[in-house]
Amino acid sequence: MVFMFLERFLGYLQFEKRFSAHTILAYRKDLTQFNKFLTTTGTKIEVSTYTHVRSWIVEMMDQGSESRTINRKISALKSFFKFLIRENISSDDPTRKVQSLKTAKRLPVIVEEAKLNNWLNTASLDTRNKFTGEEDFTLFRNLLIIEILFCTGIRSAELIGLKEEDVDIYNCQIKVLGKRNKQRIIPVHINLIRLVEKYLFIKKSKNFDNNNSILFVTNTGNNTYPKLIYRIVNSCLNNVSTNDKKSPHVLRHTFATSLLNKGADLNAIKELLGHAGLAATQVYTHNSVERLKTIYKQAHPKA
Question: Is residue 169 part of a domain?
Fold first, then answer.
């Protein structure tokens, strides 16, 4: 069965294409889902056709899946069948005629920088345990997580993967391992470095049994995980934003938009965000244009 080559394909994505663990997991789920769909039709994946792929897409549309989600699944299928052909496992590509669905352009969701700064300033004064008067590990860790996401624009997965040694205290910079295992260096201000130093001191004082070198850990010293980071960010943004979306990526968008509004070069922002191409970064220019329109309407006498 051709589907036996799934693990081989995923290994190819990991070691040759250097896809992120998050992307590989998504591809695994997508391909498993397609195989499950074929099972209901009594069809094996090695003999699937364009009609089968198209029927799967229609089914997902009927179930209310977003176009972006469906397009990612189409991309996973296309990559898989190209791999099979490349490895001489299959001679036909049922996705050859499949086109991606049209998607509406969505502006990045951001929060007001002033409100977020005010929250951070207030939260920094409230990180002590009300009973002992000592710095509370959880409160201080959560505060630092928000600070780093907002001050660096790194992704949630990149934050989770940060190690203590990745923070260069003397040069005020952080080394980040991004998508496709590509490293980048992000400069940070001295105040953030001081917060990291304080956090490391508090973390060490907890005397966790495993001596975890990962920067951010749970209350038991284990690695943090995506849902925990999401809950921390969501709790913060509930205090500063009325937007429905309150994920770690909102802080990434806010970071990039803030830099652009203050005159930062688009190519520099691209490097800081770890984007492979400039097209992904250019989406932030739309937010800046909307800001200019607002300023124009407020300031121009004939607006």
Answer: yes
d(CA 221, CA 112): 33
Sole residue written with tokens 């799934």: 6
Is 252 catalytic? The answer is yes
Tokens at 164, concatenated: 């203590």
Answer for the pair 169, 163: CB distance below 8 angstroms, yes or no: no
pTM of the model: 0.79
Taking alpha carbons only, the member of 131, 124, 173 closest to residue 146 is: 124
Q: Kindly state the DSSP code that residue 187 receives in the 8-state scheme.
A: E
Q: Are residues 47 and 117 in the same domain?
A: no
Residue 155 among the catalytic residues: yes
The pLDDT tens digits for 207-255 are 998 788 999 999 999 999 999 999 999 999 999 999 899 999 999 999 9
What is the CA angle 150-223-247, rounded to 5?
Answer: 35
Residue 303's CB: how many other CB atoms inside 10 A?
A: 10
- pLDDT tens, residue by residue, 33-56: 999 999 988 888 878 899 999 999
Total domains, the chain:
2
141 in active site? no
Whether residue 137 contacts residue 130, with contact meaning beta carbons closer than 8 Å, is answered with no
Query: Are 14 and 117 found together in one domain?
Result: no
Residue 220 is predicted with a pLDDT of 93
Q: Which of 180, 198, 249, 286 is catalytic?
A: 249
Same domain for 127 and 243: yes
Residue 18, CB half-sphere, CA atoms under 13 Å: how many? 8
